[in-house]
Write a structure and sequence with these properties.
Blueprint: E1 2-9, E2 12-23, E3 28-32, H1 37-40, H2 42-53, E4 61-67, H3 79-89, E5 101-103, E6 106-107, E7 113-114, H4 119-128, E8 133-137, E9 152-155, H5 158-165, H6 198-210, E10 214-217, H7 224-230, H8 240-253, E11 264-265, H9 273-277, E12 278-279, E13 284-285, H10 287-290, E14 295-298, H11 306-310, H12 313-318, E15 320-324, E16 329-333, E17 337-342, H13 361-368, H14 373-377, E18 381-384, H15 400-418, H16 429-435, H17 440-453, H18 457-474, H19 481-491, H20 496-502
Parallel strand pairs: 3-4, 5-8, 8-9, 10-17, 10-18, 11-14, 14-17
Antiparallel strand pairs: 1-2, 2-4, 6-7, 12-13, 15-16
Helix pairs in contact: 2-3, 6-15, 6-18, 15-18, 18-19
Amino acid sequence: MKVCSIGLRGMEGYRVQVEVKELPGMPSVVIVGLPDTSVKEAKERVIAALHAFGCDVMKQKLVIHLSPPERKKQSPMFDLAMAIGILKVKGKLKQPIPSHIAFLGSLSLDGTIQPVDGMLPAILAAKKLGFQQVYAPYDPTFPFYHLQHVDCVFVQTLDQVVQCLQGQQVLFSMNHLPSAVDPPRKTHRDFEHIIGHEDAKYALEVAAAGEHNVLMIGPPGCGKSLLAETFPTILPRLSHEAQLEVLSLYQLAGEPKNDSSPPFRHPHHSASSVALIGGGTQPKPGEVSLAHRGVLFLDEMAEFTKKTLDMLRQPLETGKVTISRVSSTVTYPAHFILLGAMNPCPCGYFGSKKRYCLCSPKQIQAYRQRISGPIYDRIDILLSLEVVDLTETPKRLESSETIRSRVETARFRQYERYGEEITNGHVPIDVLLAKSPLTKRQQQLLQHWAATYDWSNRVQTKIIRLARTIADLAGVDSITDEALWKAMAFRRIKEGRQERNMKGGC
């Protein structure tokens, strides 16, 4: 007897055939097909659940094969499929089981079906694999209103599954669930509460509109963390497809996430490389993947180990991270906006107008070089912040909602231009230049400043991307000279050539 289920390799789903055969021999249940510990223990759960159902399986030898045999099975998600296969072999289930039905879920000892980590990506994979119907346990964290295209039948017990397969009971399916409305975002942060930092606010608006990476350098207490924590309030809500990706990643990691707001991850600088990138014996998503479609904020960025920061090269460049272990190799998406914050020197007061810096030039250079040149190259905007004088009369302050509306308009212009949901920060450069070419004069200007500041080709590309986003915020169809000047200004911080030399010419 063959019953279908779904296995996961990272975010990728594949078809698993659960084959059950009764053989002569000592009464036992044997599971083959590279099962891990959680799958091997399934035989005890399945035996107990079937006993509660009224089916005694300990009279003959049962062999359960999980195909394909070359892939390691790492989840208790196959319990329900094993139980259905055994019931069919034992004659407790007379009706044929079509191959277009998949069974997902873990069994309790009393026959209750429970959800497990990875249920959502498995259900999403079912449609791609050609399954027409999926039996799965009900999970209130599922975004049901985004899964209307999947015919998913929710079950609570093994008895309900059997009755449904026999046509005796019609259970509620995905199509019978009400369409939920995502609640409005609630946050106590708002840009209208931040006094000063007009240039930094505009830079963050550009970063939000084009998904550009930002590094903020300033003395302690100047507002770096406050700006970073307020930044998500100007990001657009996630689209349906993006929300499903994010929720799938959070399910695989076993963390809660049940709204459409972009994720904001804030790991401590003592976090290990495995916590940041992902991994483990059974590779799970790390902070870079949990920040997918959102923000990864690295406060005190220079305090992270250099080895850990250099691991960000691949996800910043490709938008994904590949984790290779002896047991398996998986790839997780990691398409995020990097926000970094650091002091200008170990004591924090280099360049300050009110405090004296006690650090030697050698100490300052060593501190800056904790962030390698390739990481600097992958950052679009360098911001130099100063302490704000709160006694001055503040200018007119804009709310996050006002800024977010401009960001959404700029994003919509980009989606229309490229014909897909992609921003200037991540669109292939050949597509960007084909849609928005630079004039000959603009190319000469960029080359001149690139030679002056030793900018690499990657930095020049990022300046073009920034200029295109600035033009989008201004509602202009082509890259203007003003937009290019502003983009180059974002790459030069106020300390000028002295700053550049300390960063090793970045």
